[in-house]
Amino acid sequence: MSGFLVNPFVFGAGAAPGGDPFFANVVLLMHFDGTDGSTSFVDSSSRARTVTPNGNAKISGSDPKFGAGCGLFDGAGDYLTCANSADFNFGSGNFTVEAWIRTAVTNSFRTIVTNRASAGSDPGFLFFINNNGVLAAQCWGPTSGTALGACVSPNGTISANTWHHVAYCRQGNTFRLFADGVQVASATSSNAVANSSNQLYVGRDPSSTARDWNGRIDDLRVTKGTARYTSNFTPPSAPFPDN
Predict the structure, then answer these.
(1) According to the model, what pLDDT value does residue 144 have?
(2) Which band of pLDDT confidence, cut at 50, 70 and 90, is reported for residue 153?
């Protein structure tokens, strides 16, 4: 028999029986599984972080991408937080931030995940959607307020009430943005991402409550030290592995 093997965790195929070879680098892994209406959110990474719900953020058993649930956010005060950690400070290293998202709106700025500070100082990273179905992400460098790795997709990349796999990666000096396995934007920078002293937010940008996520999120994963996707790929067809 001839053929070749593709590493599913770099190139994006579904979960393999052997687990994730980069699992030690996973610093946050949320499957959003649980009882419908539950406010208990679990980090399945080896860090086992405490995840704190705010507002009416909850597990929904309706229309998850995978498993028994997804995170449900109403766009008006619903979000999650994890305590500040050096694990979310990427420096000049590789990283991957990814999730499955299903937004109810595509006509406004809505935040997927960030550890940026509030207005006035912007260390860290920000992953979001914007007007006209745009997917976008950026980091901030050593000079306060100076963006780096800013990636903005074409209009219409994200549609409402549809599950999309989205990923933001850094490989060396190249930042890439993917939607449903297709690279939709890229940027280059050799600068390090400035360290953030803020907590991690899922579904909120602390600089504006008007940017709260409105919709669903499933299988959110942050990997520090690994650029999982470096070219177009097939989106994961199963939940991310827990080991």
Answers:
(1) 66
(2) very high
pLDDT at 117: 80
* Strand bridging mode 95-103 / 58-60: unpaired
What is the residue whose two structure tokens read 């990997």? 223
Which pLDDT score, from 0 to 100, does residue 142 have?
A: 79
Quote the tokens at residue 205.
Answer: 């940008």
How is residue 231 annotated by DSSP?
A: S
For residue 5, what are the contacts with CB-CB under 8 A and spacing of at least 6?
Answer: none
Amino acid at 83: A
Rounded-to-integer distance, Cα 75 and Cα 71, Å: 12
Residue 206: count other Cβ atoms within 10 Å of its Cβ.
18
pLDDT bracket for residue 13 (50, 70, 90) = very low
**What are the phi and psi torsion angles at 224 (to 5°)?**
-100, 125
CA separation for the pair 231, 233 (Å, rounded): 6
Residue with tokens 């602390």: 206
Q: Give 218: exposed, middle or buried? Use CB within 10 Å, 0-12, 13-18, 19+.
A: buried
Count CB-CB contacts under 10 A for residue 188. Answer: 10
Q: How far apart are CA 179 and CA 197, in angstroms?
A: 29
Residues in the chain: 243
Nearest 5°: CA angle at 195, between 90 and 95? 10
